[in-house]
């Protein structure tokens, strides 16, 4: 082959390679711009069979309360009477092993078995172990859960319905995560929830402890996470609220949540902007704010540190931070009583927390 032809061919190959490299360099900014939209998962709607199963469960829970002699009208008369005392339903919504089970076990052993029930919802597709002890066989029929999707609302409602069907004496319903710990004794928790006669919360004796916020800067983005004005007309922006995912609801409000169909039609819709989608932090505060704001304290009993949150996750406490001083600090609240629970803690904090259990955590 003539030398001139080889030179021309080499020059063409060099130019082609240069064009390819130059094109790739130009496309990098565009790739970074579009990657979040391409890679962000798009949740589909909740499967219809799951919806129908849940609806049947919720209807049974509402119906049995109406038929039961221990309905809400007679529930209040049980307090201070010779009848069995009302109970707290502790509802664990988890997607890993319950690695603080030993600490919670000691918490429950601090109280009377007649004053509480335990229910655990765990994604069936995950390998979650039964921790045994007081938690043995307390797993309820569960379905798939996914972050930034309404499946977390469904799971919480499933726990509420199961607890109502299981024991008519369940009156308070506390939603707990696997990274949450108790920071007071069981006796302290029970007394605070039921002995409110001398409180400054107003005429309503028994209220739900749920955070309800209306002036947060994130509200507009969260409201439009499913699309602009998709929440209308059921949920006007002026009624949209945000709050903690973890709450303590009265039986009245638990039933209100199970009866709801109107707001659920909106909140069950999948988001198109997943980075702004946290339905479980909006559904419960919005619903209870619209239906019975006076029956809610407006604050949560679970302490969370959002000062250095990452990707929507709050601060996670690790072993070097665990101390009696931390427990005392986590108890402090700007409202009329202490926090009763706190999150998030890493699993390797367990041994340190167990060492402090009797002398600090459960010493009120």
Concise synopsis of the structure shown:
The chain is an alpha/beta fold and about 375 residues long.
Describe the structure.
The chain has one domain (48-303): Spore Coat Polysaccharide Biosynthesis Protein SpsA, Chain A. It starts with a helix and ends with a helix. The strands form three sheets. Strands 2-1-3-6 form a four-stranded mixed sheet. The chain has a three-stranded mixed sheet with strand order 4-9-8. A two-stranded parallel ribbon has the order 5-7. The chain contains twelve helices and nine strands. With 364 residues, it is of the alpha/beta class. Helix 2 runs parallel beside helix 5 (151-166).
Share of residues in helices:
25-40%
Query: What's the total number of strands?
Result: 9
Q: Count helical runs.
A: 12
CATH topology: Spore Coat Polysaccharide Biosynthesis Protein SpsA, Chain A
> What is the annotated CATH architecture?
Alpha-Beta Complex
Q: How do the strands line up in the largest sheet?
A: 2-1-3-6
The first-to-last residue Cα distance is: 93 Å
Instruction: Please compute the radius of gyration using only Cα atoms.
Output: 25 Å
Q: Give the amount of beta strand, in percent.
A: 5-15%
Overall geometry comes to globular
Count of the separate structural domains:
1
Which structural class fits the helix and strand makeup?
alpha/beta
């Amino acid at each position: 082959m003539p030398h001139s032809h080889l030179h021309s061919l080499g020059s063409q190959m060099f130019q082609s390679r240069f064009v390819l490299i130059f094109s790739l360099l130009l496309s990098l900014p565009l790739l970074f711009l579009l990657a979040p939209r391409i890679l962000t998962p798009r949740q589909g709607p909740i499967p219809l069979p799951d919806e129908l199963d849940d609806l049947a469960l919720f209807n049974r829970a509402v119906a049995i309360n109406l038929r039961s002699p221990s309905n809400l009208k007679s529930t209040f008369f049980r307090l201070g009477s010779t009848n069995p005392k009302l109970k707290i339903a502790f509802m664990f919504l988890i997607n890993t092993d319950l690695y603080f089970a030993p600490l919670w076990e000691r918490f429950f052993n601090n109280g009377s078995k007649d004053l509480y029930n335990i229910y655990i919802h765990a994604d069936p597709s995950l390998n979650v172990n039964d921790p045994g002890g007081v938690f043995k066989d307390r797993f309820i029929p569960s379905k798939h859960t996914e972050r930034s999707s309404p499946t977390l609302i469904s799971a919480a409602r499933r726990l509420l319905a199961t607890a109502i069907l299981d024991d008519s004496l369940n009156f308070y319903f506390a939603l707990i995560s696997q990274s949450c710990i108790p920071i007071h004794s069981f006796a302290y928790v029970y007394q605070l929830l039921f002995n409110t006669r001398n409180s400054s919360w107003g005429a309503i004796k028994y209220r739900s402890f749920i955070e309800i916020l209306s002036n947060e800067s994130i509200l507009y983005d969260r409201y439009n996470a499913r699309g602009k004005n998709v929440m209308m007309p059921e949920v006007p922006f002026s009624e949209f609220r945000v709050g903690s995912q973890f709450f303590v609801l009265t039986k009245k409000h638990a039933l209100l949540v199970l009866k709801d169909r109107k707001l659920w039609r909106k909140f069950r819709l999948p988001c198109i902007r997943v980075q702004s989608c946290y339905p479980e932090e909006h559904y419960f505060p919005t619903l209870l704010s619209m239906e019975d704001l006076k029956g809610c304290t407006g604050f949560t009993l679970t302490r969370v540190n959002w000062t250095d949150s990452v990707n929507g996750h709050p601060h996670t406490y690790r072993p070097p931070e665990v101390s009696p001083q931390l427990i005392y600090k986590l108890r402090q609240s700007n409202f009329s009583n202490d926090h009763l629970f706190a999150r998030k803690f890493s699993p390797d904090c367990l041994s340190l927390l167990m060492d402090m259990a009797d002398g600090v955590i459960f010493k009120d």
